[in-house]
Specification:
single chain; about 500 residues; mainly beta; Immunoglobulin-like; 3 domains; 7-stranded mixed β-sheet; 6-stranded antiparallel β-sheet; 5 helices; about 5% helix
């Protein structure tokens, strides 16, 4: 009789670490493996292959007075097809002799990979959770089982494949403890410098918007053939990405330490600019995580801060309460199958950047229901300008525009507003650019979260020119979440909610 007491009661293999609790020994002739489903995201189909079987013997006293059932007369189980080509070359010794060699985790991992091509069509499956949220594989005779996810069932999900060997001489429970990297997208408020995961902050058209993606570095030790780690980023058409194939257009900072950056040798950038529909701009950053860890540049548990920027351009959508506009979305694709090929994807993480519109009226000082037409104004973020120094003509058009905000006003414009704050590209093109606003009941769009000043350069007939500029300020809430907390304007100490 050839006893195999050295065989591990739990062999941890193929990248997944499991905790094992064994129930009280019973005399049942069949047993169950319960896989704890609380830590899983996707739906799984688990397959149990009997690798070794034998004669089950009564408990024997082990070290420390512990008792456990043992198998003797070990042979290959029904889950192994010994007639497959190459089996005898790869496993020239008996099942019992093979089992005797499996005394370490590393040996078990190597064995599980080696036996995988020779699995038979005989396996017991479970693809549905019980009332407790667990997967229960039942009707198993005594032996050692390889329990694994069915091939190609977790592609593109945010979950991992499992594969492990375990001794079944009683009902057992296993809790998978796989590792999934994480991703979080953030946007910076240009005024406060704060970063937000909602990021619904307001920017002036033409402003540079700073983004960062925070990802975690996984343990890749069980992926000897390499580990896929690709950040996918998509911007809507309202952004002009500043990311190029020049690696200086992004920085990858380790653990948010500006003195510790990942060199460009460890990543590549692939661009996919706005497509035929003109709706998105896309780039991928592929990071060689395995090499960076092997070279000592990274270690599991590190956080990567991927920093880059875009310009809010003339195609940006203007703020509407409760609606997402000008979105930037990121997702991480990562290896999730140490047994072979396959990748998972984190949930998408999205932030928004809005530009704000406002209707501006000049009304009679005694009757604020009376809108005054014909007033001419210029717009600035500088509170210290002098109209007398602008050298305005009789129509209120300034010859000196230093400090003024240029406006884009094409003839027959049919967009949200007759005046948009001009971007640098529009100013360079020089078409439909003006610095003068004719206020009556006029909409201007493209404001950010700033102080603005309207200087009157020509008054309506019968009215005096304003001696001081009119200040108005756009605000967003401390939550920086314009989906639920609408922006507002303060004007002459009055607060006006935006209802666009």
């Amino acid at each position: 009789m050839n006893k195999t007491s050295k065989l591990l009661s739990l062999l941890l293999v193929l990248a997944i670490v499991f905790s094992l609790s064994v129930t009280a020994l019973a005399a049942d002739t069949t047993y169950t493996i319960t896989v704890n489903g609380s830590g899983t995201v996707a739906d799984h189909t688990f397959e149990a292959y009997q690798i070794f079987k034998g004669d089950l013997h009564a408990p024997a006293t082990g070290e420390g007075g512990n008792t456990s059932k043992i198998l003797s007369n070990i042979v290959w189980g029904d889950g192994v097809d010994t007639n497959k080509e190459g089996f005898k070359e790869d496993f020239p010794v008996s099942a019992a002799a093979t089992a005797e060699l499996l005394t370490t985790v590393e040996q078990a991992r190597a064995f599980a990979k080696k036996i995988a091509p020779f699995l038979s069509d005989v396996h017991t499956d479970c693809s549905t959770k019980d009332g407790s949220g667990n997967y229960v594989i039942s009707g198993l005779s005594a032996g050692y089982y390889l329990v694994k996810d069915k091939d190609n069932t977790l592609q593109n999900t945010n979950d991992f494949y499992t594969a492990y060997l375990m001794k079944v001489v009683a009902n057992v429970t296993a809790t998978p403890k796989g590792e999934k990297p994480t991703l979080e997208k953030q946007i910076q408020n240009n005024n406060t410098g704060e970063w937000s995961t909602t990021g619904n902050v307001a920017f002036q058209l033409g402003d540079t918007v700073k983004f960062r993606i925070i990802t975690s570095v996984p343990d890749v030790s069980r992926y000897p053939n390499g580990y896929t780690y690709i950040v996918h980023d998509t911007m809507t058409v309202g952004f002009t990405s500043k990311v190029t194939t020049d690696k200086t257009s992004v920085s990858i900072v380790i653990d948010n330490d500006p003195t510790d950056t990942l060199a460009g040798d460890y990543y590549t950038i692939v661009l996919n600019p706005h497509g035929d529909t003109g709706e998105t701009s896309h780039f991928d950053i592929t990071i060689n995580i395995s090499k960076a860890i092997a070279d000592g540049k990274l270690q599991p548990g590190d956080k990567l801060y991927i920093n880059y920027a875009a310009v809010l351009n003339e195609k940006a959508d203007f703020y509407q309460v409760g609606q997402k506009h000008n979105t930037n979305t990121a997702q991480l694709e990562y290896s999730n199958n140490p047994n072979g090929e396959g990748t998972g994807k984190t949930p998408e993480s999205t932030v928004n950047a809005w530009s704000l519109p406002a209707i501006i009226r000049k009304v009679d000082g005694k009757d604020n229901t009376k809108i005054l037409n014909g007033a001419k104004f210029v717009l600035s973020r500088n509170p210290n300008l002098k109209v007398s120094e602008m050298q305005c003509d009789e129509n209120g058009v300034p010859a000196v525009t230093t400090g003024l905000i240029a406006l884009f006003a094409p003839a027959g414009q049919s967009s949200t507003a007759p005046y948009d704050i001009a971007t640098a590209d529009q100013i360079t093109a020089g078409e439909h650019i003006t610095y003068v606003i004719e206020l009556g009941d006029t909409t201007i769009a493209g404001f950010g979260e700033h102080d603005y000043y309207l200087y009157e350069t020509k008054a309506p007939n019968g009215y005096n020119l304003l001696a001081e500029p009119v200040k108005f300020t756009f605000h967003t809430s401390a939550t920086m979440d314009l989906l639920t907390d609408p922006a507002w304007i303060t004007l002459n100490d009055s607060t006006i909610k935006l209802t666009g």
